[in-house]
Amino acid sequence: MTTPCRTEKRGRLWPGLHRSAPPCFLFFFNRESIPMKLATILSSLLLAVCAAGAAQAAPDLAKGEKIYKATCLACHGAGVMGAPKFGDKAAWKPRVGKGIPALYKSALDGFKMMPPRGGNAALKDDEVKSAVDFMTTKSS
Ligand code: HEC
């Protein structure tokens, strides 16, 4: 007795769903809403890309390169006094192995023959760090 009853109900329910679904769908994506939704999606994508770009290494490396050329190249370019040479992966490997925070500290406070801030006391912490980022990224 129960089985035919259920089939009948389902039979009524489905055609109803099919009839109401297309207008609902159209209402959701109607004329104005498509460009608006696209604009929202695109602008949030753009924002996300920009935010990621700013937070990522790319601009820091450009800044680091400037600092490196102005201050660090003098010793690290040719390996003066045993400075790990720029681009010399073998020389940088054990240093990078100490961890980047340790290298920041060496660059900021000095380390053996490495003068604090490469001898340029005017450099800000983040400038010294970006030069370390630049040298280690390009040398490993
Ligand atoms: C006067 C020369 C000189 C200048 C300028 C210089 N360095 Fe160095 N640096 C050295 C020497 C020498 C060493 C190697 C020290 C050692 O391990 O004996 C060294 C080592 C380092 C190390 C590795 C430290 C460690 O813990 O292994 C880092 C990082 C570093 N320098 C960053 C910099 C940065 C960044 C600059 C520019 C802001 C810079 N150096 C400028 C001479 C210099």
UniProtKB/TrEMBL annotation:
Q: Does the keyword Cell cycle apply?
A: no
List the source organism: Rugamonas brunnea
Keyword Metal-binding set for record: yes
Mind giving the lineage of the organism this protein is from? Bacteria, Pseudomonadati, Pseudomonadota, Betaproteobacteria, Burkholderiales
GO MF terms here are: electron transfer activity; heme binding; iron ion binding
Q: Which residues form the Cytochrome c domain?
A: 59-139
Which keywords has UniProt assigned to this entry? Answer: Electron transport, Heme, Iron, Metal-binding, Transport
Highest taxon listed in the record's lineage: Bacteria
| Any Pfam family hit | Cytochrome_CBB3
Tell me what this protein is called.
Cytochrome c5 family protein
